[in-house]
Amino acid sequence: FIGDIKEGASPCTDDLLATMRAVFDRHEKPLIFTPGDNEWTDCWRAPAGGFDPSERKSAVVSTFTAPGKSIGKQTLPLEQQDGQRENARWRWNDIVFVTLHMTGSNNNLRQSDAAIAEHQARDALNAIWLEESVAAASDAAGRFLFIHANPKWDARWWEPTGFDRFRDQLAEVAAQFPGAMVVAHGDTHRFRIDKPFSGAPKMTRVEVFGPPQRGAVIVDVAPESPELFRFSPFLLDP
Asked: What's the rounded Cα separation, in Å, for the pair 227 and 180?
């Protein structure tokens, strides 16, 4: 689940987190969660309750992750990053799956000193986790990366963003990997499947549906296909 368990303007309360955790606990299959901006980065805003974002981040991570495993009725063993357990990794059917805690609202790179420090610390851990995950997937047929944020693929050099290091690192990783690679994200509410890096034709970006549309994307592993992955999007209320 790639973040945004609520609308941005609704309060970031503990009751909401508990309610959503109960929903996730009823999920029949293993569920892996990576946080979005609506549940912590933007909680300082008055309509969201005026919370301290760092405190909300800790609450979200403790609520929706478990040490060494997924949540849901069935659980899946996970490798997790020390100090940032929401960064997870698992392997299935010769595909390595990875989550990175990367949120909308510019990845929390805001003007306050606290926000900048939080961003820098998490961004550094993300870079380490991606590097370690690349090494762990060196012999895999494919890689599948989940983040929440749209990392502003088309940003120019004069537009510094909270995603610059990630984009540079990912472009290098994708160009060097001979297999198929997917990056799935949400955040900007526009369903699309495309190739964001001209130098990495085997890397695919999938942005999932978001309001006002309600939909889902089923991903199948198709070993007979050069792309390895097959995507089947559908709307829940067309």
From this structure: 6
Query: What one-letter code names the amino acid at 8?
Result: G
Q: Is the Cβ–Cβ distance between 168 and 161 less than 8 Å?
A: no
Cis preceding-peptide flag for 212 (omega within 30 of 0): yes
- How many CB atoms within 10 Å of residue 233? 15
- Tokens (6 digits) for 153: 């693929």
Digitized pLDDT (tens) for each residue of the chain, 238 residues in all: 999 999 999 999 999 999 999 999 999 999 999 999 999 999 999 999 999 999 999 999 999 999 999 999 999 999 999 999 999 999 998 999 999 999 999 999 988 999 999 999 999 999 999 999 999 999 999 999 999 999 988 766 557 899 999 999 999 999 999 999 999 999 999 999 999 988 899 999 999 998 888 888 999 998 888 889 999 999 987 5
Q: How far apart are CA 221 and CA 228, in angstroms?
A: 6
What is the reported pTM?
Answer: 0.94
Q: What span, in angstroms and rounded, lies between the C-alpha atoms of 151 and 126?
A: 13
Q: Residues 37, 40, 43, CA angle at the centre, nearest 5°?
A: 100
